[in-house]
Design goal:
By secondary structure, the chain is α+β, with helices and mostly antiparallel strands. It is built from eight helices and six strands. A four-stranded antiparallel sheet has the order 1-2-3-4, with no helix packed on it. It has a two-stranded antiparallel sheet with strand order 5-6. Helix 3 packs across helix 8, helix 4 crosses helix 5 and helix 5 packs across helix 7.
Length: 242
Amino acid sequence: MLCSFYTKKEIVLIKQFSSLYEMMKTFQDEQSCINHLRSIRWKNGVYCPHCGANKVYHFTDNKNHKCGICLRRFSIKVGTIFEESKIPLRKWFMAIYLISSHKKGIASTQLAKDIKITQKTAWFMLQRLRFATETKSFQEPLAGPVEIDETYIGGKEKNKQEIITHRDGGYSVGDRHTNAIEGAWSLLKRGKIGIYHHASQKHLPFYLHEFSYRYNTLQLNEGQRVNGLLGQCAAGALLTRR
C-alpha cells in the first residue's frame, strides 16, 4: 500500500466523555480507538517508538506506520501495554474506565463478565493497567512541610503497634493532620478485603499503584482519568505472563 508523511495536523483531537455509556458511543469501533490512542500518544508530535525519530509515514489502512529513519513498521500500540495483545482496544478502553472509576477497584472475575473475556485474560489486563498507573512524579526530593504515615497490609492484628488515637487528638498537630491519608488507607483496606480478598507480596506493589492513581486523580472527571491512564500506557518493557 502507498504511504504518506504523517503530519501533526492530521492527528484528531483528544475526545472527552463523562460516563461509560458516553465513552462507548464515542468509540464504536476499533479505528476510533486507534485514532484516540494516537491523539494521546502523539499530542506533542509524532515519533517512532523504536528510534524516536519524528519522520513518520502512515499507510492508507490508517492503522500502520513506518519510520522514515530506521524504516521499521509499527502500529500505535507498539511500545505500550497494548502491544502484542489480541484484545480489541475497545475492550481495553472499557477495562481502563472500570478500573479507574471504581474507587475500590474491580475484580478480574467481574471484569471478565463485564467485557466478555476469560478470568485469566482479565487478570492479566488488570496487571498491565496497574503497571501503567505507576507514577514517576516522586523521584525528586520533597520540599516544604512533609507529613508521613504508614499502614499495615496483612499479618496478625496483635503485631500491629502504630496506632493513632483520635480521642486524644493524636491525629493532628496545628494545621497538620492524618485525616486525608487515613481516608486513602481506608479505601485500600476495603478494596483488598471486599474486592480483591488477597494480594501476594509479589504483586502488592501493583495494587498500591492502582489505588494511588485513583486517589491522586480524585479531582478529575471519569474521562480525564481514562485519558490520563491512556497517556501512561507507554510503560516501557512489557509485563510477561507470570
